[in-house]
Protein 1
Amino acid sequence: MKKIILLFFLSIFTLGCNSSDDPASATDDGLATAPEAKAEYDDSNFGIYKGIFVGSSGTVYVNLNNSGNISAKLVIDGMTYNFTTSENVMEGVAISNLTFTSGESSFEFNVSATGEEPLIENIVIDGHPDSYVQIFKEYSFAQIKCYLGSFSGDDSGVFNLATTADGYALGLVVPNGETSAIYLDGTITGTSLSGTFEGGNFSGTLNGNTISGTWQNSVPESGTWLGTRKL
């Protein structure tokens, strides 16, 4: 697998699920069954952002005043990092380099005035160098789900995906022994997923809280991948 550079338009940075005034229900394992984002923030920079992390493996959740506060949570390899910021943001105004911190760890959050093109950069996570994040903005009508997993076959490593209820997917892959991420871009029709990365493609099937499929590249190499929903 090779590297591709993509950014996507919906978002998140993993965070303990703060919900709306009418909280989204959750399964026994704590996974939300409906969007947490409030409809009043669908066209705003405020709301909920969710995504995936590599440089190890994890999820990201960012809450920008969806429930009256600004906070973020990153879960990496099962360990939770709660982030806060001392900076203020205004609704309807683009956010640039909003700094979140948790001890020695930090990252900067950027998003347009309407919630498009969210981006997390300048990521410094203690003990996790070479970090990458892909995020979506969650909408009141389109829930974000994040899956963590691995791929195997002629190559192997971390394979993480985030999906939207309206048919989009993005992902990050890091082969074992490498530090650079491969960016995945895909679409979903029903329970079927297909997508591309630089020099290859992947496909799969969603089945409840699991997702799995196959990959191949131009080397040629091929194999399978599997993920479990964690956010």
Protein 2
Amino acid sequence: MNEGSSAQWRLAAAQIDARIEELRPEADRHVVGQHVISQVPLKRFATRFGSDGLKLLPFNLDHPNRVHKRASPRECGKVKHFARFASASLEQLWGKLETRIPDAAAAVDRGDVFQHEQHVQTLKDVIALHLVRSLNYRDVHERIFTKIYTEQRKALLTDQSDLLRLAVLQQRGVPRRPASCPRPARTSPRASVPKRASHRASATSEPR
């Protein structure tokens, strides 16, 4: 299968559709405040304030003039409605990765992290997950999706309407004619000949 081939993209689209259907029962399980920065590394930058525990001083980029108040790592690094579909499943994935970070971080502190392949893989996963959970990545995704969706929808309704029809037939099949809808009556070739033409034809066929 060549890179960029239509078969490759159809396979990728089928996998995405399958994953959406798999998560559809969880669509209503929505988490409002979703972390875009893991609590584990946040704790490494926090300071203990007596009985209040570890605290950070978050800076709100949307409201830079707002008074800054200390907050726990659990309260920091959150974005409301970051993922809008089945967000609880993403939080679960995030939580599974967070359980692996402390051991990898300890290996970093000891200086022997590259001697443990599982810790190296954890750090790679942490970097990748923070990348796709970043605000910049989300903005790029939304811009690209909106642009491609608009262009593709216009194309399927105009120049590529045959592709849309083919896709519908592949998914739904040929629609059956309702039982209450009679088939149109077939007209015979003789009935389609105009009356005047038929009279003229009969007149010319008579012997003189």
Protein 3
Amino acid sequence: MSDAGARSAAAAHPEAATRTAAVHPAAHTEAPTLAELRALAPLHARAQGIPADRCRAVLSRIRSAHGGDADSWPAVWSRAGDALAARGRHLDAARHYALARFPYPDGPARERAQRLCVRSFDQWRTDRPGIGREEVEPPSGTGRFTAWTAGLSSRTPRPLLVVCGGIVSVKEQWAPLLARAAALGTAVAVTELPGVGENTLPYDTAAPAMVGALLDHLADRAEVSRTHAIALSFGGHLALRAALTDPRLVGVSTVGAPVRHFFTDGDWHAGIPATTVHTLARLTGRPPAQVPASLGEWALSAPELARLTALPVTYVAALRDDIVPLGDAALLARDPAARRELLVLDDEHGAPAHLARVRAVLLGSALRGLGLHPVRRAALTTVAGVRGVRRGRMRT
């Protein structure tokens, strides 16, 4: 899609391009409310594979957003996870613990949920010997992070898919992809942003270096010179920045990634939801009132975008995104020579109502970029749960 097309879409839906302070007047000072978490939960539950009726049932028992009381958010979701774990349903338990620690660990109850999310996933993978755990400590010495992996082989190294979510997404949500990745012609490594889950690295301008550290760590078991990143939201921003200095990244597929305007548009900042503001504050160590205005140096400049012209980027944008402005997608598509595929959907941040379609687009573009056989691309589309879903029209 051309820059003009993206601008036209923004003009047709001005509420997706500009926001005012009246939308979320206390977003920069007050912690996320229960009402906001309730509104976000179905979207994240759907991404985890938790049925809608199950999500509603759990939410109906919650009376407070924070703390450790029996009817608090982390306690109710954790009890649901505990019950599943007791029945040996470890992956389902991990999914519920992931919602219990949402949006980030802010005390003992959510910290426990984070630990149990990892532990339950680890128990689930014991029956799946192809799924491994890699701990990486970058040369910076400022922390370490973990990746779940599949399809690694020192004898027959394969092209690599690096998968990363956003600021509230844990790596354990990618279980379906890991479960069958070894048969699809790629190696897969799923990880987390700095400060999320088990990643103890600082979330700052040096954070994109973790991608290179991961590739170095896997270089003896994957063809890391052919790496494609499927990176969502702020993970997409991290991947784009990593690609500026690491030619082993041969493509990026993303949805709702901030590029520049998110970091620099003061009018837009006033309307960003409290969950986003406070999660960024937690990860970056900055006061909520200074986020995201203090992150201006994270914006991709015009010269940096010019350096990414040859990088194939697939970007899914949402017209009703209240986190990342539509103008950020337009920036990526501004240069007619840029290798871009842009899909704009009438949806919210992350396009949760179009989850199957988005998965097909992102995974399909990644596998095309790695030059994999069409049969393998079809197989991965099936793994993503999108068999029979119309791909739809995407303009380049």
